[in-house]
From TrEMBL:
Domain YokE-like PH: 33-122
Pfam family membership, one: bPH_3
Source species taxonomy: Bacteria, Bacillati, Bacillota, Bacilli, Bacillales
Sequence ranges assigned to domain SHOCT in this UniProt record: 148-175
Top-level taxon of origin: Bacteria
Organism of origin: Lentibacillus populi
Name of this protein: YokE-like PH domain-containing protein
Length: 177
């Protein structure tokens, strides 16, 4: 991903406030991983500096590229986020991301970009939960359906409807699929 790809993605997802984060936006392509998608971004105030806050499908990134000290980068993996809370003021808002026993507070987020940021983070949290929930369910469903089929064929064998060879062949076929 290059700088133009980032700008195109920002336009696509309607990123409207990048106040004071021009250097961070230029640095973002070096930080985004190959298999990662930007879901939303905005600027906010943290540790007495303006930061670029970027939600991806894998993590929430906080970037602050200073003139002298280089790049400050903080990231929170989506699966580590417990909850997101926010409050709105007249022009700006605050987002608090709770992760583990800690939290990150980002202030002076443009009121218009506050809800899209929170929604993007919450959507990715939900997506991560759904991915985790889907895997065990699918494997349980698969193993029960295979077991059920074997039981059905065993009954057919016990009742003399199919031969032992036919039962063994079907059982092997089901276990290999």
């Amino acid at each position: 991903m290059n700088h133009q790809d980032v700008l195109d993605r920002f336009k696509e997802i309607n990123v409207t406030d990048l106040f004071g984060t021009k250097k961070e936006v230029k640095e973002l392509p070096n930080v985004i991983r190959e298999n990662e998608t930007i879901m939303y971004a905005t600027s906010g105030f943290m540790e007495n500096n303006t930061w670029l806050i970027t939600c991806t499908d894998k993590r929430v990134l906080f970037l602050d590229k200073g003139m002298i000290y280089g790049l400050k980068q903080v990231e929170i993996p989506i699966e580590k986020i417990n909850s997101v809370s926010h409050k709105k003021g007249l022009m700006f808002g605050t987002v608090i991301i709770h992760h583990g026993s800690d939290h990150m507070e980002i202030n002076q987020i443009n009121k218009a970009t506050l809800n899209p940021l929170v929604e993007a983070i919450n959507n990715e949290i939900e997506n991560q939960k759904n991915k985790k929930d889907d895997k065990p369910y699918q494997s349980k469903e698969f193993s029960f359906s295979v077991a059920d089929e074997i039981i059905k064929f065993k009954k057919l064998y016990d009742e003399g409807i199919i031969t032992e060879g036919e039962f063994q062949e079907k059982k092997k076929e089901l276990l290999e699929s």
